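hiii so um. not sure if this is the right channel but i have a protein structure encoded as tokens and i wanna go backwards to a sequence. like what aa goes where. can anyone help
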């Protein structure tokens, strides 16, 4: 194509002739240019609003999920607190019963101590000493590892093992 053929096209000529029209319209405030600009602004505003609504919907969904999680956690805490309170109430009742029992025991012990003739105290002291002595003997024989050999079970070889084992 020649240069003259390229310029003879009517579309090209029209485009070249009106290439500054839009800029003039924008500069001087032509109604057609303003309508186009307003249409672009409206499209941009609608698109921006749609994007913001989508973002808000996503944030609302996230917030709903977090509120649901907090609700589950708070219900769990409530249940745990109720269980803990019932356990504490039971413990309080048991401690008050133990307090009453100890009070009665201390009262009886005071009566025994006030009696003349400490015969009961001597029996108690001797019994405690006997129990400690018995525990010492049992613990000591178990610690040394000695076997108790009776004449019917043991042989002379077993007795010799006991003497050599320390």
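sure thing!! here u go:
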């Amino acid at each position: 194509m020649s240069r003259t053929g390229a310029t003879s096209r009517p579309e090209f000529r029209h485009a070249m002739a009106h290439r500054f029209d839009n800029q003039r319209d924008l500069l001087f405030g032509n109604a057609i240019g303003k309508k186009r600009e307003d249409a672009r602004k409206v499209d941009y505003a609608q698109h921006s609003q749609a994007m913001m609504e989508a973002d808000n919907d996503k944030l609302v969904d996230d917030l709903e999920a977090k509120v649901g999680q907090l609700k589950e956690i708070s219900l769990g805490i409530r249940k745990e607190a109720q269980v803990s309170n019932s356990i504490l109430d039971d413990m309080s009742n048991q401690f008050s019963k133990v307090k009453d029992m100890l009070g009665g025991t201390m009262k009886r012990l005071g009566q025994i101590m006030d009696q003349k003739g400490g015969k009961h105290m001597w029996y108690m002291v001797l019994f405690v000493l006997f129990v400690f002595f018995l525990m010492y003997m049992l613990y000591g024989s178990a610690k040394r590892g000695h076997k108790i050999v009776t004449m019917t079970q043991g042989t002379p070889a077993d007795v010799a093992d006991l003497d050599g084992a320390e």
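oh and The CA atoms of residues 53 and 59 lie 10 Å apart.
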